[in-house]
Amino acid sequence: MSKIITLGEIMLRLSPSGQNVRFVQADRFDVIYGGGEANVAVSCANYGHHACFVSKLPAHEIGQSAINALRRYGVDTQYVARGGNRVGIYYAETGAAMRPSKVIYDRAGSSISEARPADFDFDAIMEGADWFHWSGITPALSDSAAEITRLACEAAKRHGVTVSVDLNFRKKLWTSEKAQQVMRPLMQYVDVCIGNEEDAQLCLGFKPDADVEAGDTGAEGYKGIFEQMRSTFGFKYVVSTLRESVSASHNGWKAMIYDGKAFYVSRRYDILPIIDRVGGGDSFSGGLIHGLLTMPTQGQALEFAVAASALKHTINGDFNLVSAEEVAALAGGNANGRIQR
């Protein structure tokens, strides 16, 4: 069992009750907790790892409810600082067919965005850890959150911890110019860089020679950009997910990984119907971390990650509530969905 640290924000998600109900129709909302790095922690805990989530939450009952949501699935919350005034909120409307899903954020002034370095002892947190994961969402929350992210990365390197990042550009949080100003210097600490073609361009300034929107998801357009990213930042692995959006209910899904020697492309999953795609990328990151920690080849690790994420699209909520055995069965070719009894 590996000790895996994730750093970020967990939010209160409010979704209209009922299938495919629009915001303007809703008179009830379902409460779900989730957020990029929290979702990764849940996945890793489900795979049997010692997963620790680092954040800051208010000392009131809503903050405690967020912590309880993580504890329910075995995530270690001992490093969550308490204080501040609010839990970030986001509203999620699930799309269907040609109507896209929609997210509205209400997260300004959340506890983690106002956290300070003194709230965390990162040397103690990283002691004995094997892996540290963060995403581009965290430093986008505020300048202080960006500083906390840097301090966590520095501590991880001091303790010999593998560091992964999911670039995760969010245009509602910052501009591409600000993202590159903050993110590029942080890449010196990163061993495993995860993203998609848009993230790589907006966060780091690298654009693959491929048009995903037009269905061009072949490996050739990505090889050159992966090599440039490794050369520039010294990544051990560069990883990209490839989502083909046929509609809000129907996606194609695969990924590719490059270690400087071999370029591996996963099998493609045709996901129809999608139940909830929120957290799909996080489930991929969690699966990849597990795969790289436990499997002999990058190809096996990637197949596990893609299968894990494909399964997440069938589960309501942010968390990917599947076991390693379920993911391995799908990665091994069992995709018929027949009842198990």
Could you characterize the architecture of this molecule?
- This protein has 341 residues and is of the alpha/beta class.
- The chain has helices spanning 36-46, 61-71, 122-126, 137-140, 143-158, 176-186, 197-204, 220-233, 280-294, 298-312, 324-331; strands spanning 3-7, 11-16, 29-34, 50-54, 56-57, 81-82, 89-93, 102-106, 131-135, 162-166, 192-195, 237-247, 250-258, 263-265, 269-271.
- It is built from eleven helices and 15 strands.
- Strands 1, 4, 9, 10, 11, 12, 13, 14 and 15 form a nine-stranded mixed beta sheet that branches.
- A hairpin with a 2-residue loop joins strand 12 and strand 13.
- The longest helix has 16 residues, at 143-158.
- The mean pLDDT is 94.
Which helices and strands, and how do they pair?
Blueprint: E1 3-7, E2 11-16, E3 29-34, H1 36-46, E4 50-54, E5 56-57, H2 61-71, E6 81-82, E7 89-93, E8 102-106, H3 122-126, E9 131-135, H4 137-140, H5 143-158, E10 162-166, H6 176-186, E11 192-195, H7 197-204, H8 220-233, E12 237-247, E13 250-258, E14 263-265, E15 269-271, H9 280-294, H10 298-312, H11 324-331
